[in-house]
């Protein structure tokens, strides 16, 4: 394939907006589209290589995959290993847990899936993820696995049948991406089926140009078309933002812009000369290393508070990326790309061993981190700090609107509420209460209010959550009402807010008017100001297994209000059961096990502790 310096120039106008976007420059709010331009370039180059090889009968899948490995893996693995070192030095438990999963994704070409299952790309927390950008590499790697096979399959019917097949796949993927950008935004952003149309756009360009005798589109309007392409990219970079639905119809603007430049920019015209200048080509040559290095540098800098304190700091970081990326290109990328024998010397088993090492580090990274830094005996508590919601929510889904198991002698309970209700479910199941109760649960967010009333209380709900709350059926769910008719008891448990307490009496009246079940209202709770993992270990190392923490007294007042409104016979004061009536709360069990990791939600030990305490309250005659 003949080298086109202007393609390196296109790489430059792709990578610079991405870097400026991740650096936090608001003027480049749409800089993330640089990744989409990369996809178009990649699709064009890969397809040209494959079609050329198939046409002259020199294409071999094994050779193709080896070339891709030489291009992608060395620098990627090097940056990943260095990121592991810095993450282990700087990150806290939750960050290590998330980071380790992404390392596993990098090594298994599934980083896009891992990140999809975590936070969104535009979430504030995503800025702190050193390997956030590897999602796009995973998309490309997955594309590399399937696209050559599809080309081999359709090539037997000729190049234009292959072209037609790509057109069909392009349309399906674009339509799917457009639908997903409005209905499944996270999956659409990260996953190959909704992203492949961008790579396929480049593939169509590659096939079209290859089919032309001179591989050039000659037209007197080529300057106009290529300049229009650059304008489309700049419009997207400067006007798109985190609210732009992607990867659907809006991304056709920068994608088409990249297509026009690839089609019409040539060294003899204005755009070709611009993109072929030494500055653009130089940036383009190191663009892969620039892309690899920028996100870890920015993430670790943010973690240390460097970014956000000074414009000079971010400017120096960006300038520093250039020499680092040059060295990475010169001494890591080039030797593997230009010297096939080097890759042959580093045998397949070695590459596999490095990949497996990264995968193991990612899969067991958190356990290794705790064992080496704090000791294996603290792993269980550390894991709960790292994934605080994991235990709390672990049972809820399987109990949600679950049918009761006939007449098995157990009391039938419908439990309605939020994460505090999840604590109650765990308390029952972690204790001998499970021998007496069978539960079916239903979720109503505390943001919306666990209340059933004809009054309009939308003014009390945060305006950001009003649309979500309006869509919630609350107590008007048919399945819920069917279960409430069968229930012996109905339990309401929430992180009650003061405004909600005025509506609780009407809620209980409506439940009583429609159902025969006994009603219990569980109060809110605060088990002490946050106790982070290091503080917890410090207390243990000093021999203190009885950790008292100050409580939020406003919670106590809210419970008093609830008790007055619902009656003592219906009210269960969790705060008093766990903490007593003082101004502080013992956040450890008699065995020295942690009750709450955040002062509000229960650990496994805390759930078991509460369950045993509740026996005397719930089972008394």
Describe this protein with a few key phrases:
mainly alpha; two-stranded antiparallel sheet
Descriptive account of the structure:
This protein has 621 residues and is mainly alpha-helical. It has 29 helices and seven strands. The protein has helices spanning 5-23, 34-55, 61-90, 93-107, 111-117, 134-155, 159-183, 185-190, 192-211, 222-239, 252-264, 270-275, 278-285, 287-303, 311-338, 340-345, 348-363, 365-373, 379-386, 388-393, 396-399, 419-429, 466-471, 478-486, 504-514, 533-541, 553-566, 574-579, 604-618, and strands spanning 411-417, 437-443, 489-493, 518-522, 548-550, 571-572, 584-586. The strands form two sheets. A five-stranded parallel β-sheet has the order 2-1-3-4-6. α1 (5-23) packs parallel to α14 (287-303), α2 (34-55) packs across α11 (252-264) and α10 (222-239) packs antiparallel against α11. The N and C termini lie far apart (85 Å).
Poorly predicted segments: none
3D shape: elongated
Give average pLDDT, whole number: 89
Largest β sheet strand count, sense and barrel closure:
5 strands, parallel
Count every beta strand, where a strand is a DSSP E run of 2 or more residues: 7
Q: Report the sheet-strand fraction.
A: 5-15%
Q: Can you count the helices? A: 29
> What's the Cα radius of gyration?
30 Å
Structural class designation: mainly alpha
Helix share bin: 55-70%
């Amino acid at each position: 394939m003949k080298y086109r310096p202007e393609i390196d120039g296109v790489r430059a106008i792709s990578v610079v907006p991405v870097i400026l976007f991740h650096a936090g420059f608001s003027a480049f709010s749409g800089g993330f589209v640089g990744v989409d331009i990369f996809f178009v370039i990649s699709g064009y180059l890969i397809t040209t290589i494959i079609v050329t090889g198939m046409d002259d009968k020199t294409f071999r899948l094994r050779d193709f995959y080896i070339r891709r490995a030489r291009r992608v893996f060395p620098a990627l693995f090097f940056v990943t290993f260095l990121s592991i070192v810095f993450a282990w030095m700087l990150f806290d438990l939750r960050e290590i847990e998330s980071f380790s999963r992404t390392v596993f994704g990098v090594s298994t070409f599934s980083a896009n899936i891992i990140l999809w299952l975590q936070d969104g790309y535009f979430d504030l927390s995503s800025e702190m993820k050193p390997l956030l950008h590897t999602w796009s590499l995973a998309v490309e790697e997955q594309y590399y696995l399937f696209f050559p096979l599809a080309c081999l399959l359709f090539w037997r019917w000729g190049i234009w049948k292959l072209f037609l097949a790509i057109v069909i796949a392009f349309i399906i993927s674009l339509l799917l991406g457009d639908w997903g950008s409005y209905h499944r935004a996270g999956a659409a952003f990260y996953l190959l089926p909704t992203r492949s149309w961008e790579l396929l756009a480049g593939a169509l360009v590659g096939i079209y140009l290859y089919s032309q005798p001179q591989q050039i589109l000659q037209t007197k309007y080529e300057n106009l078309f290529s300049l229009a392409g650059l304008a489309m990219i700049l419009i997207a970079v400067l006007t798109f933002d985190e609210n732009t639905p992607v990867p659907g119809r809006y991304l056709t603007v920068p994608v088409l812009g990249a297509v026009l430049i690839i089609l019409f920019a040539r060294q003899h015209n204005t755009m070709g000369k611009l993109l072929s200048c030494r500055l653009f080509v130089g940036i383009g040559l190191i663009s892969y290393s620039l892309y690899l290095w920028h996100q870890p540098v920015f993430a670790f800098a943010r973690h240390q508070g460097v970014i956000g304190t000074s414009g000079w700091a971010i400017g120096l970081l960006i300038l520093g990326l250039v020499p680092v990326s040059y060295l990475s290109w010169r001494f890591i990328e080039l030797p593997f790309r230009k010297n096939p024998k080097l890759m042959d010397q580093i045998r397949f088993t070695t590459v596999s061993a490095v990949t497996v090492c990264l995968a193991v580090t990612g899969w067991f990274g958190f356990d290794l981190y705790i064992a080496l830094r704090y000791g294996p005996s603290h792993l269980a508590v550390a894991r709960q700090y790292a994934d605080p919601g994991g235990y709390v929510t672990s049972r809820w889904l399987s109990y949600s609107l679950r049918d009761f198991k006939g007449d098995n002698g157990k009391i039938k309970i419908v439990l309605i509420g939020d994460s505090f209700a999840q604590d109650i479910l765990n308390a029952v199941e972690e204790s001998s209460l499970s021998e007496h109760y069978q539960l079916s649960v239903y979720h109503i967010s505390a943001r919306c209010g666990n209340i059933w009333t004809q009054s309009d209380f939308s003014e009390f709900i945060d305006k950001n959550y009003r649309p979500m709350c309006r869509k919630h059926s609350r107590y008007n769910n048919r399945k819920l009402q069917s279960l409430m008719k069968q229930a012996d008891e109905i339990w309401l448990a929430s992180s009650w807010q003061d405004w909600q307490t005025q509506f609780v009496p009407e809620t209980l009246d409506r439940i009583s008017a429609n159902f025969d079940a006994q009603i219990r209202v569980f109060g809110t709770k605060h088990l002490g100001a946050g106790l982070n993992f290091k503080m917890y270990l410090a207390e243990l190392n000093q021999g203190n297994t009885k950790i008292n923490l100050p409580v939020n007294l406003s919670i106590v007042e809210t419970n008093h209000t609830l008790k007055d409104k619902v009656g003592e016979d219906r009210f269960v004061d969790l705060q008093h059961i766990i903490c007593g009536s003082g101004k502080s709360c013992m956040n450890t069990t008699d065995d020295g096990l942690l009750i709450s990791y955040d002062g509000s939600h229960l650990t496994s030990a805390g759930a078991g502790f509460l369950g045993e305490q509740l026996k005397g309250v719930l089972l008394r005659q």
